[in-house]
Design brief:
- The complex is a heterodimer of chains A (404) and B (229).
- Chain A contains 15 helices and ten strands.
- With 404 residues, chain A is α+β, with helices and mostly antiparallel strands.
- In chain A, helix 2 (16-52) runs antiparallel to helix 11 (262-300) and helix 13 (315-351) packs antiparallel against helix 14 (367-394).
- Chain A is elongated.
- With 229 residues, chain B is an alpha/beta fold.
- In chain B, the strands form two sheets. In chain B, strands 6-7-8-3-9-10 form a six-stranded mixed beta sheet, with helices on both faces. In chain B, strands 2-1-4-5 form a four-stranded antiparallel beta sheet, with helices on one face.
- In chain B, helix 6 (180-197) links the parallel strand 7 (168-172) and strand 8 (200-204).
- Chain B is globular.
- The chains are: A alpha+beta (404), B alpha/beta (229).
- Chains A and B meet through helix 1, helix 12, helix 13 and helix 15 of A and helix 2 and helix 3 of B.
- The structure holds adenosine-5'-triphosphate (ATP) and magnesium ion (MG).
């Protein structure tokens, strides 16, 4: 073993209390960083997943006839029911558009839909709904509802309809029951409940009624038409860019989920920056801890360092001995801290769970996180050792031996 | 022996301490140590013996004058150069705290060679063991130095000073901390190595009986060498 390593490891082993102290500092620091990241990343991922569970990544609609500034709020009409004063318009030659957008790189799937407001009635109950007429295969490629079906199947062919759990409860319907859908213009359709879904979103659960494209076309008097085209993209954070590209390509209005949920993204971003702040302070605290313990150990060992120098150890080797001590503490601390952080995170995840068994606080423990934390801890160890190591290397041997 | 070049030559070495109020500790020291000599350096406390030893040992730089070791002038060498010259030509024995407590006897003796070459070799370990056996510590090879008595520790220090076969060993009161019997054992060891290997020794001592048994006695008084032979 190289001399520096031999001496450094021996000193770490001998100075048990000091070594344990700085190891604890690094381990706790690393575990806090891992725990915090895992928790916040997990929370954010689940928020985004939740949001995207019932939203297409990009929505294309025909431009409104009246030129007016775009208000993001309007787009949320996709999930809320507002009686639009505008008649529902079809996208011109939507099949061509569909082919076109499907070929845009990054787009995974496209689904045409006719959607509009209506009232769902059964017996005495009467609820406003958003009727979404879809092509089942294409729709599922954009928003995969199948795992969210809690009763029946996803079948929207013919008069089949799939409704949210909330709506089913409000109307008091079960599988096989019939619902009457009526528009403000007075047109009506009878559909049969073929499936019930639960998207974990009250609004959607109480408002969505999925029917066949043909049903919706006749209900809203858009024979052969499609009022929207919805896209799924490969990389969710590319949605905004792809929306712009698609809008230029088709001349349609294209909105990404990122624009629709701008508020959410602002929230996530500020969460990210507070996470970063906390981590920076943890790093600083750990670094100061390591540095001060190592400085004390250099002072305590100054006579020994003087002797090392007297017997022919170069000051470069002395410098490296203490850098190695810092680096080793960083590496070992990152291992211990990673383990601790994982345990904390998993413990926290199991602490609380949703009714469906999924954790309330899902954590995201990616290998990259451990790699980053380990690299960080090693860097911290080395960096914290720089000042003590330089101090050791600069010790004047004669003085150190005399007074050490 | 007279024609052989001196192992160490000190010329007009002056040493001042302090920035504002300057204290001159050494006032122009000249001396020469020849190969195979065992020289005592005596003088009252505070006369500058340790200071001179540190300067000869390249642990400290003189304010003026020069130190020539084995024909090499140390003046003007940088830190790395001093370390290299020190590692090659010098061995040290200190009065206390001379060994590294975290290491075993063998490790302590190997240290100079290990530190110089960077990697341990079997030969290094072997030589360390042979030296420890030679100083009568064959049964304590792997003992922690903190578990050894003062006399035993000092014998380890003698072995370490000789490990890389230096031409000159500087000993600062190597027996000052030992009882009479242990002191004589350690001195006898130094004398033996001096005879067997022709190693030059400069030994600072307060013990008149030890000084008597050296080849030559240098006395330092108020920072000047006063007497010889
Ligand atoms: N680093 C220093 N700074 C200031 N003064 C010093 C320093 N080192 C030594 N001195 C002074 O130099 C003088 C000589 O010290 P030195 O240690 O060489 O004496 P010594 O002969 O070895 O004494 P002793 O026999 O007690 O060991 C002393 O007066 C001491 O106070
Ligand atoms: Mg002294």
């Amino acid at each position: 073993m190289p001399f520096e390593w031999y001496v450094a490891l021996r000193y770490l082993r001998e100075g048990r209390a000091q070594t344990a102290l700085i190891l604890a500092a690094v381990s706790v620091g690393v575990s806090v960083i891992i725990f915090l990241s895992a928790l916040i990343d997990g929370l954010q991922a689940s928020l985004i997943k939740q949001t995207l569970g019932s939203q297409p990544h990009v929505t294309l609609v025909a431009h409104e006839i009246l030129a007016r500034p775009l208000a993001p709020k309007e787009i949320t009409a996709a999930t809320t029911v507002e009686r639009s004063p505008q008649p529902i318009r079809s996208i011109d030659r939507w099949q061509t558009v569909l082919d076109q957008v499907e070929r845009v790189p990054g787009v995974l799937a496209a689904s045409p839909a006719v959607q509009g407001p209506a009232f769902a009635t059964r017996g005495g109950a009467d609820e406003p709904v958003l009727v979404r007429g879809v092509d089942p295969e294409r729709f599922l490629a954009v928003i995969d509802l199948r795992p969210k079906i809690v009763a029946g199947r996803f079948r929207v062919a013919g008069d089949g309809a799939v409704v949210g759990r909330g709506l089913a409860e409000l109307l008091g319907v079960r599988l096989g029951d019939k619902i009457r859908l009526g528009t403000v213009d007075g047109r009506e359709a009878m559909v049969t409940v073929a499936g019930i879904f639960d998207l974990g979103n009250k609004e959607v659960n109480e408002r969505w009624a999925l029917v066949s494209l043909r049903q919706a076309q006749s209900l809203f008097e858009l024979p052969g038409g499609a009022s929207t085209i919805e896209l799924r993209v490969a990389e969710v954070f590319e949605a905004e860019r792809i929306a712009g590209e698609v809008a230029d390509l088709t001349g349609l209005e294209a909105d990404s989920w990122m624009k629709v949920n701008a508020q959410l993204l602002v929230g996530l971003r500020s969460q990210d920056s507070s996470k970063l702040m906390i981590q920076v302070f943890v790093v600083i605290a750990v670094m100061l801890g390591i540095a001060s313990v190592l400085i004390v150990s250099v002072v305590q060992k100054s006579r020994e360092i003087g002797i090392l120098r007297a017997v022919g150890t170069s000051s470069g080797r002395v410098l490296r001995i203490f850098l190695i001590e810092g680096g080793v503490v960083g590496v070992v601390g990152s291992l211990v801290g990673s383990a601790l952080g994982t345990v904390f995170s998993l413990f926290f995840e199991h602490l609380a769970s949703n009714p469906d068994g999924s954790p309330t606080f899902p954590v995201d423990l990616r290998p990259g996180l451990f790699l980053a934390a380990s690299a960080l801890a090693t860097g911290i160890g080395l960096l914290a050792a720089v000042v003590p190591a330089r101090r050791a290397a600069r010790l004047d041997p004669a003085t150190a031996i005399r007074h050490g | 022996m007279a024609d052989a070049p001196p192992v160490c030559r000190v010329e007009g070495v002056v040493k001042d301490y302090g920035d504002g109020v300057v204290t001159r500790v050494l006032h122009g020291i000249d001396l020469e140590l020849r190969a195979g000599e065992l020289v005592a350096l005596i003088g009252p406390s505070g006369s500058g013996k340790s200071t001179l030893l540190n300067i000869i040992g390249l642990l400290d730089r003189p304010t003026a004058g020069r130190v020539v070791l084995g024909g090499r002038d140390a003046t003007g060498l940088d830190d790395a150069g001093l370390t290299a010259l020190r590692g090659r030509t010098l061995g040290f024995i200190f009065q206390f705290h001379h060994l590294l407590p975290a290491f075993t006897a063998t490790e302590n003796v190997m240290l100079p060679a290990y530190a110089e070459q960077g990697f341990p070799t079997a030969a290094m370990r072997q030589r360390a063991r042979a030296l420890l056996e030679a100083v009568g510590l064959g049964h304590k090879l792997d003992a922690r130095v903190t578990e050894l008595s003062g006399g035993q520790q000092q014998r380890v220090a003698v072995a370490r000073a000789l490990a890389h076969e230096p031409r000159l060993v500087l000993a600062d009161e190597p027996t000052g901390n030992l009882d009479t019997e242990a002191a004589h054992e350690v001195f006898a060891l130094m004398r033996r190595f001096n005879r067997e290997r022709h190693t030059t020794f400069l030994v600072v001592t307060h013990d008149g009986r030890i000084a008597e048994r050296c080849d030559r006695v240098l006395e330092i008084l108020d920072g000047r060498i006063r007497a010889g032979e």
